[in-house]
Amino acid sequence: MVELIIKRDGRTTAFHPEKIADAVEKAFSACAAMQDRAVAEEIARTVCEKLEAGAIEGIPTVEGVQDLVEETLIEAGFVQTAKAYILYRAEHTKIRQSEADLKAAYGVISPRKVKLQVEGATVTAVRCDIQAYYAVLATIEYDNGDVVYVSGLTKLASISDIVNLVESVSLT
Hints:
Elements: E1 4-6, E2 12-14, H1 17-30, H2 37-52, H3 62-75, H4 79-106, E3 109-114, E4 121-130, E5 133-142, E6 147-155, H5 159-168
Antiparallel strand pairs: 1-2, 3-4, 4-5, 5-6
């Protein structure tokens, strides 16, 4: 049984198969595939079986497991869900790269998830404290499939301006 996984930052932590099912369930939802939790759990079980069979040598990495999830979704006939999963990974890679770029330019940052709401959309946002500034990076995914990326940099005293900007975005 797989017990450990290597995170993107190189840390080794406990492996939680239910996180695979959670991600698959979100991918089903993102592409409006009418699948229940049991199907997501079956995909997760298949990924775990592949890991047990040696699909990844040694301790698996997050990226390696995600590659297996994509492969398993396609093999199970969930091609649209696999596409949604791939797009989700690509978007989050962009967010991580933006954070890395900010860190390289401004030094140590401390990213934190920010809870923001936009009517009719799902918002994924990160706030980074950079010296005397706040940077906010947000992905706004509308129910109709449109995606908007928002970023802003402001003095510490006016973070609410950035939050208001993200929350006021609309596609009209």
